[in-house]
């Protein structure tokens, strides 16, 4: 939303270029004529190579077989879910399937997926390509450009029947109109509709003249013959008065490098777009330094006080396998209204676009099993090292393991019905669903067969790491503490239990135990029935191992009392 709303005010170099090229059917991101001409040469040379490797027989007239498309679906790229309407600038994943059930696919035939790349509502696509293989033999090529996706087959496809396959690609949907629009993606008689929400014009935040405001943006762009990235850093967007120079150091991170030829290498000052060279000439007290992957921009406080700044630059992609590209800008500034300078980081990540295509087919007497799995990000990948048991028509069995391409391919099999079971998978695969399943394949010695595709999921639970068992200890049963009572409540005094101590019998020979027993006995009063019950409850709270000790203490107390009484009686008689 930010890209488009700022473009309406003429201050966003990125969206302005996007809108400028939307009226041209030969959509070009870069304004440089020399770069565009070079792109065309590279694109032509790439096409020639693909034509050579996809050589076809002159006996067959190539046809557009786009009606072999059996399905087209569109989902939001990140959520993998279908939306009722998509925002302008949203990334979507388009997926499709094809089959020769409606007619044979031969060398030279093509399948086309088309979309609009101009007008108010259009598709911003990216460049990609992939060779298509069946059993190690290339049977065609898959390409994506600004106008659509194309699958081109060569003569190797002629040896196969029951050909089927799938493809997918990421694109960005755009709508520069205020009203909702619908984009149509078509392939033969099959179509997918993408409703795109209209933009709100004139809603960009205007400079307030006070306080700091800044941010960083990034996006994937199409340079005709390759994909690239464009980055933008907004500085002092409130056009506040400066108390010191602004310093911005931007570090280009992995998988990309600075592109000196990018049309995005510009600086906007209050909406006026300048190339790097023009900037240096107009603002001699400011500077631009490019040192490898670090770009440093310094804006003099006298030249830029009260002005908005947008720094833009482009990067080349050096690693197409990266899922995400990151950049971080470190900005130091001090406004006139501030007493101290401030340092802040602006980071931005741009997801890479993806595309894929696969094709399968079999010959008479051939069995093919393809094993795939869905990873934790929802992407389908091949699964090697999975073992299947194949039970033949004579009830004998044989085991096969999927190769590095996730395939088992067995040729020259006798006709009949074969039962398939998946018996082992790598330990990071969830085997619970597939282990009880069986599949039946009927092999013909006349007709071609259909590959069996088996899908698994990855384990979603965290693996358990066994722990070293602790030394065996006797468990302690915690006790419910009794209520504290005073001496005049006629309750039996309760013992204080140390919950950290080990339960054990109390020795009866210790003097403090005997003294306690004497005190308790001397303080005892006649008990009511209710108090006796409470005393019994309190007694039950004591550890069982102490019951014997309590009985012994009581008997010792009785004996001691009798002895004392006897001693007193004898003493009195002697005195008398």
Automatic annotation (TrEMBL):
An individual GO BP term: cell adhesion
Disordered: annotated segments: 32-69
Biased composition (Polar residues): 54-69
Topology class, membrane: Peptidoglycan-anchor
Low complexity bias locations: 32-47
Keywords: Cell wall, Membrane, Peptidoglycan-anchor, Secreted, Signal, Transmembrane, Transmembrane helix
Localization per record: Secreted, Cell wall
SpaA-like prealbumin fold domain: residues covered: 377-445
TM helices/strands, residue ranges: 549-570
Gene Ontology MF terms in the entry: collagen binding
This protein's record includes keyword Signal: yes
Cross-referenced InterPro entries: Adhesion_dom_sf, Collagen-bd_dom, Fibrogen-bd_dom1, Ig-like_fold, SDR_Ig, SpaA_PFL_dom_1
Protein name: SpaA isopeptide-forming pilin-related protein
């Amino acid at each position: 939303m930010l890209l488009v709303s700022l473009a309406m005010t003429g201050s966003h170099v990125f969206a302005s270029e996007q809108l400028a090229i939307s009226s041209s059917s030969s959509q070009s991101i870069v304004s440089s004529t020399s770069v565009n001409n070079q792109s065309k040469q590279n694109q032509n040379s790439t096409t020639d190579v693909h034509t050579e490797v996809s050589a076809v027989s002159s006996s067959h007239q190539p046809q557009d077989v786009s009606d072999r498309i059996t399905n087209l679906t569109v989902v939001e790229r990140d959520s993998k879910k279908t939306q009722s309407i998509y925002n302008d600038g949203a990334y979507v994943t388009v997926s499709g399937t094809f089959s020769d059930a409606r007619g044979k696919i031969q060398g030279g035939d093509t399948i086309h997926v088309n979309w609009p790349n101009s007008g108010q509502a259009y598709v911003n696509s990216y460049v990609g390509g992939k060779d298509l293989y069946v059993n190690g033999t290339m049977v065609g090529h898959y390409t994506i450009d600004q106008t659509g996706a194309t699958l081109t087959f060569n003569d190797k496809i002629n040896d196969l029947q029951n050909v089927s396959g799938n493809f997918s690609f990421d694109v960005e949907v755009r709508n520069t109109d205020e009203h909702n629009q619908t984009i149509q993606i078509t392939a033969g008689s099959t179509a997918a509709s993408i409703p795109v929400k209209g933009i709100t014009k004139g809603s960009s935040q205007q400079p307030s003249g006070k306080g700091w405001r800044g941010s960083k943006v990034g996006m994937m762009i199409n340079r005709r013959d390759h994909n690239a990235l464009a980055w933008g850093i907004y500085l002092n967007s409130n056009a506040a008065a400066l108390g010191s120079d602004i310093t911005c150091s931007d570090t280009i991170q992995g998988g990309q490098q600075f592109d000196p030829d990018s049309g995005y290498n510009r600086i906007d000052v209050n909406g006026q777009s300048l190339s790097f060279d023009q900037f240096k000439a107009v603002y001699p007290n400011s500077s631009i330094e490019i040192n490898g992957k670090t770009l440093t921009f310094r804006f003099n406080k006298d030249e830029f006080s009260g002005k908005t700044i947008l720094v833009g630059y482009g990067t080349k992609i050096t690693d197409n396998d990266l899922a995400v590209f990151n950049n971080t800008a470190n900005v130091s500034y001090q406004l006139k209204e501030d007493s101290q300078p401030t340092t802040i980081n602006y980071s931005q990540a741009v997801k890479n676009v993806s595309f894929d295509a696969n094709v399968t087919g079999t010959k008479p007497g051939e069995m093919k099993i393809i094993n795939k799995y869905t990873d934790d990000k929802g992407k389908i990948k091949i699964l090697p090292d999975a073992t299947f048991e194949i039970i033949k028509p004579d009830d004998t069995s044989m085991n096969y393991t999927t190769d590095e391409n996730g395939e088992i391919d067995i040729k020259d099999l006798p006709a009949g019905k074969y039962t398939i079971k998946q018996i082992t998978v790598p330990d990071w695969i969830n085997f619970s669903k597939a282990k009880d399943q069986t599949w039946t394949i009927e092999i013909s010695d006349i007709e071609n067969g259909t590959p069996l595709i088996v899908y698994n999921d990855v384990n979603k639970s965290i693996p358990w790491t066994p722990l070293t068992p602790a030394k065996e200890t006797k468990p302690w049963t915690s006790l419910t503490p009794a209520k504290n009572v005073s001496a005049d409540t006629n309750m039996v005094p309760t013992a204080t239990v140390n919950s950290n101590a080990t339960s054990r019998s109390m020795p009866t020979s210790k003097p403090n135990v005997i003294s306690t027993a004497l005190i308790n006995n001397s303080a005892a009063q006649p008990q009511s029935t209710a108090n006796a019950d409470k005393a019994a409850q309190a007694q039950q709270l004591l550890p069982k191992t102490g019951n014997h000790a309590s009985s012994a203490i009581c008997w010792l107390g009785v004996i001691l009392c009798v002895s004392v009484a006897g001693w007193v009686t004898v003493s009195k008689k002697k005195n008398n």
